[in-house]
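pinned: reference chain
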Amino acid sequence: MPSTVIFADLKHTEHTCKAVPLGISMVAAYSRGALKDRMRFSLFRDPARLAAELERGFPAVACFSNYVWNCNLSCSFAERIKRASPGTVIIFGGPNYPLGPEAQKAFLLAHPAIDFYIVQEGEHAFVELFNRLEKNGFSAEKMKKTRVRVPNTHYLSAQGFVRGKTLARLEKLDELPSPYLTGMCDEFLRDSLVPIVQTTRGCPFSCTYCSEGSSHWSKISRFSAERIGKEVAYISKRTSVPNLLVADSNFGMYEEDLEICRHIARIQDETGYPTYLINIEGKSPKILKAAAMVRGASVSTAVQSTDPRVLANIKRSNIPYKEVLRISRKVVELGLSGNSFSEIILCLPGDTRAAHFKSITDVIDMGINVVRSHQFIILPGSEAASLESRKRFGLVTRFRVIPKTVSRYKLLSEEFYAPEIDEICVANKTMSFEDYCECRLFNLTVEIFYNDSVFRELLAFLLARKVSASLFVLRCHEVMRNASSGPLADIYRRFLEETRNLWRTRGDLDVFLRRPGTIEKFIAGEIGMNEQLVFRALSVLRHMTELHQVAFGAGRDLLAEAGGLDRPTAEYLSQLHDFCLEQKGDMLDLDRTVEKKFDYDFMPMAEKRSWDTRLPSKVPAIKVRFAHSVEQKELLKRYVGLYGPTDNGLGNLLSSADVGKFYRPAVRIGGLRPRAGNKKC
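pinned: its C-alpha cells
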C-alpha cells in the first residue's frame, strides 16, 4: 500500500505572494518518478484546502516549505498535526534556516514539531529520507534512535544534533521531471496562480544579505532552453494570468538565456502569452538583448548601493555607471516596458545617511524611472545573519509583523493566527536610528514625487534646461521636511510614526500580539500596514493637487536659481501644471469631467506620450475635455470593489495596477472620443 505524503507551500490568505508553488512541485515530481507506487501524494498552496484534507485524515508524512513569509503558518499547521497525530512525520525544507550548526540546533529546539529539516536541494534528499523512513515503518522516533546520517538532512535525537553530509549540487537539471509537463501544476494554473519557471540554479555572486550568497550556490546549473520552451508553451494553453515569472537570480545575463527568450518570443507570436515577462534582472548589459527579444519584459538593474565601502562589505560589485545609464536609455528607446527598475537596500553594513541619499540620487540620474528602496531584512540563511557579521558591523535590529500575514485560520475545530515576523536592520556602526528614519522619509519622497514617472512632463522640461532629476527630488524632499501643516505634512508625520513602530525583541512583539484586541487591529488595518506602499497611494490618489503644487513649485524655484525662469517659461509651466493635474487629479472621482482652454497645444505630446522640451509658441485657445472613459470607470470600480476604499485597500490597489491607466484622457473638443486608457505620460 502506498504511503500518503502531503507537500505544502502555504500562502497567507491576504499575502501578495501568488505564484505557483514550484519548489514543492519539483520535489514531488522527482519523488513520484523515483518512488513510483510506494508514495501517494498531494500538493497544497491554500491553507483552507489543506485544513479540509486533514479533517479527513492524516498522512504518513507532511512536508512544509519554510520561507520568511510563511514560516509561522507552516509551523502552526505542523504543531497541530503533531498534537493530533503524533505518528505523522513532519519534514521542513527551504532557505529560512540558519547557516551554522549551533543556530540550526537552536531552530529545531524551538520548533519541536519538526522531525527532519532538509537543506539545499531537496529532490534527492527527500527520496533518500523517505527510503530510510520506510525501513523504519515511518516512525520518526525509531529512526532518530539509530542516529543515521541522511544526506542534506538535519534532526535532533536524544543524543544531540545530527547533520547528514551535503550532497553535491545537481548538474543536469533536465533529468528532473517537469511538474508542468507532468500536469502536476494544472490545479494551480486553474486557480489563477502566477506561473513561475526556473531556468538555472545558483548564483556566482556572494552578496552577504542573500541566502544564495554562500559558496555552495556559486556554480550555475541550468535547464535546457528546449525544456523551458515546452513548459511555457504548456502554460500558455492553461493559464488566464498574463504574467510569467522567472525564478532565477540573474536571468538575462547569460548567452543561454537568449535562446530561452527566442522560445518565449515564438510562443508569444503563436499564443499571445506571456503578456508580461517579469524578472530580467541580470548584473550584465546582456539583459538588454534578452529584453529586446520578447514583448512585455520588465528590466531591473538592482544595485543595492553605489557606495564602494558598502559594496565591499556585502561582497558585491555593480554594473559600471555608464552601462546602467546605457541600459536605462535603451529601455526607453526600445519601448521594452513602461519602466526601468532598480532597487536600493537601506542600512546595509557600512551604510550612512549620506551614502544612502547618494545611492538614490545616483540611480535617479542614471535615468532609471522606478527606484525602490527596501529595508535590510536579516535572512536566517544569509551570512549577514551570523553573529560574527552582526558584531563586526554593529547591526542593530528590530522586529515587525510582515504586512498581510495576519489572517484567521481553522484546523481541527481550532481557530488560530500565525503572523510572520521580520527582523530588520535599523542602525549600524555608521548609521544611527535617527538617520535611518530620515532615509526612510527620503524613500517616501522618491516614491511619491519620482517613481512611475508621475511628473515625467515636468522632469523632461527641467532636464532639457540642465536641472537634474535628483536635484528636483531633493528639493521636493526639502519642501516636505519643512512643511508643518497640510495633508502631505500629515502623511509624512504618520509615515514616520509607522516607521518607528517596531519592537526591540521578538519576545516583545509576541507579547504584544497576545494582548486582547491586537489581532483585531491588524485585521482592520489599523496597525501593521506597509507604510511605504500605503502612504504613497494616499498621496497619489487623494492629494494630487498638493503634489502638483510642491512639484511645480520646486521646478520653478530650481529654474529661477539657474537663471532660466523668464515670463514665457513661467506661463508655460503654469498651463502645463493645469493640463497634467486635470489628467491625474482625484483619479477615483469617476464622475469628474472638466473642459479647459489652453494657449499651448499639449495634445501631440500627450497622444505620443513623449514631451517636447522646447518652449513652444502660444496658439489660438484650444479647448480640451478631461474625463475617464467607460472602460477606465469599469476598471477602477473593479479595483475599488476588490480592495476597498480604506487606506490599506488603496495601497493594495496602487501596488497591483499601473497608475498611468487611471489618468483621464485629454481630448480636443470636437475631436476623437476618449480611448480605453492612457499610458503614463
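why pinned: Confidence is low (pLDDT under 50) at residues 671-681. Residues 643 and 652 are 7 Å apart (CA to CA).
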